[in-house]
């Protein structure tokens, strides 16, 4: 598998289990790229939905993707603190300047005080039936949600206090290089 290069601009492609495109983020700057982890940043980037609608992200975000965990984490930097939006998803793959994953509907929203809520359980159940998710998918996703909640409670990974500072600083460094 190819590895994205630091400072490189890539696209993020989200798919559904049936192979159809779900959403595309046009430009994300790679801050770290290894075979297991990609950390990126974007700000005011164009997002294209499967139905062709478009929108632009409102605030700077640091994005965390892992090749072994079934989730990815978007850290949205707002004036009143960092909000986290987690997609419960397949691990990522990367090729042709595109980071790709399958979105499994469930999402977790984490607030600056580290309280959280699980979203879209009804959407997961509906798509599970419609797209014939394999039986073992429930167990895989449940284990990964437990791991994610453990990270939140322990402030590990992207939830660690110094994570945002370190990666925001690196984002500003690369942004200045590209200006």
TrEMBL record:
Has nucleoside phosphatase activity towards nucleoside triphosphates and nucleoside diphosphates. It catalyses: a ribonucleoside 5'-triphosphate + H2O = a ribonucleoside 5'-diphosphate + phosphate + H(+); a ribonucleoside 5'-diphosphate + H2O = a ribonucleoside 5'-phosphate + phosphate + H(+). Keywords: Hydrolase, Magnesium, Metal-binding. Belongs to the Ntdp family. The active site is at 23 (proton donor). InterPro entries: DUF402, FomD-like_sf, Ntdp-like, SA1684. Its cofactor is Mg(2+). It holds the Pfam family DUF402. This is Nucleoside triphosphate/diphosphate phosphatase. It comes from Psychrobacillus faecigallinarum.
């Amino acid at each position: 598998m190819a590895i994205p290069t630091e400072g490189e601009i890539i696209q993020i492609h989200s798919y559904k289990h049936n192979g159809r495109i779900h959403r595309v983020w046009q430009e994300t700057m790679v801050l770290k790229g290894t075979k297991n982890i990609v950390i990126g940043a974007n700000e005011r980037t164009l997002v294209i939905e499967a139905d062709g609608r478009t929108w632009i992200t409102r605030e700077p975000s640091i994005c965390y993707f892992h090749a072994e965990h079934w989730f990815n984490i978007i850290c949205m930097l707002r004036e009143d603190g960092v909000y986290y939006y987690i997609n419960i998803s397949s691990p990522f793959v990367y090729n042709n300047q595109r980071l790709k994953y399958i979105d499994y509907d469930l999402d977790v929203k984490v607030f600056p005080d580290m309280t959280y809520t699980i979203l879209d359980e009804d959407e997961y159940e509906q798509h599970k039936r419609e797209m014939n998710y394999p039986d073992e998918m429930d167990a895989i996703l449940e284990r990964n949600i437990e791991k994610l909640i453990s990270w939140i409670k322990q402030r590990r990974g992207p939830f660690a206090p110094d994570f945002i500072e370190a990666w925001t600083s690196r984002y500003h460094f690369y942004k200045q290089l590209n200006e």
